Automatic annotation (TrEMBL):
Keywords: Signal
Signal sequence range: 1-20
Organism phylogeny: Bacteria, Bacillati, Actinomycetota, Actinomycetes, Pseudonocardiales
Coiled coil (residue ranges): none
InterPro entries in the record: DUF305_CopM-like, Ferritin-like
Keyword Lipid metabolism: no
DUF305 domain sequence ranges: 51-193
Protein name per its UniProtKB record: Uncharacterized conserved protein, DUF305 family
Length: 198
């Protein structure tokens, strides 16, 4: 499992750089960040089916990522893993608010996550059952399981974002997809370093 996830992540990173995911001075729960929340970026009314599908799937993807990051915050024993979980939690909550506002603007439903993934010929790597099973682990075993799951989950986010960059029309959605590719690849790179150890 460990080798499989690492191989997938390495392929996702091939030829691409990444950004640091935990800003200097930011604690696991987002302390140290600006106290004033930035305004939620709006989206233009010009969009196509690929934009809608991407945003709907990302809403489901982000909700699952937040659920897993909350478990990581509560149970991780490695400070690196805990800090990463905190940074992911803060970032993805902001993104979720933004994407939900876009769907409302476009008069589109948030959709059912399982059905959206099934329509693309597969199922998400992460679901409530997997997250609940992860809660049963502890110590170093939990940390490794959490990092492996989050690595695969963020890799799936990169794949969705690349599809949006190729097929999407909405400028804000495609710009967001570009940010997803960069940020998630950075997170994957950090997680691989933690998994590999010193």
């Amino acid at each position: 499992m460990k080798r499989l996830v690492i191989a997938v992540a390495v392929l996702a990173l091939a030829g691409c750089g990444g950004e640091a995911v935990v800003p200097v001075g930011q604690e696991a729960h987002g302390h140290g960040a600006s106290s004033a929340a930035p305004p939620v970026p709006g989206a233009s009314a010009r969009f196509n089916d690929a934009d809608v599908m991407f945003v709907q799937m990302m809403v489901d993807h982000l909700q699952l990522g937040i659920s897993l990051s909350q478990v990581g915050l509560a149970k991780a024993t490695s400070q690196q893993a805990k800090d990463l979980a905190g940074a992911i939690d803060v970032t993805q909550r902001e993104e979720l608010t933004m994407l939900k506002s876009w769907l409302k603007l476009w008069d589109k439903p948030e959709g059912d996550g399982a059905s959206l993934h099934a329509s693309h010929g597969g199922q998400p790597l992460l679901d409530d059952k997997v997250i609940n099973e992860t809660k049963e682990k502890s110590g170093a075993e939990f940390d490794m399981n959490f990092l492996n799951l989050m690595t695969g989950h963020q890799g799936a986010g990169v794949e969705m974002a690349l599809a949006e960059k190729k097929d999407g029309q909405n400028p804000e959605a495609t710009a967001y997809a570009e940010r997803v590719v960069t940020s998630r690849q950075g997170q994957i790179e950090q997680m691989l370093k933690i998994i590999s150890g010193p």
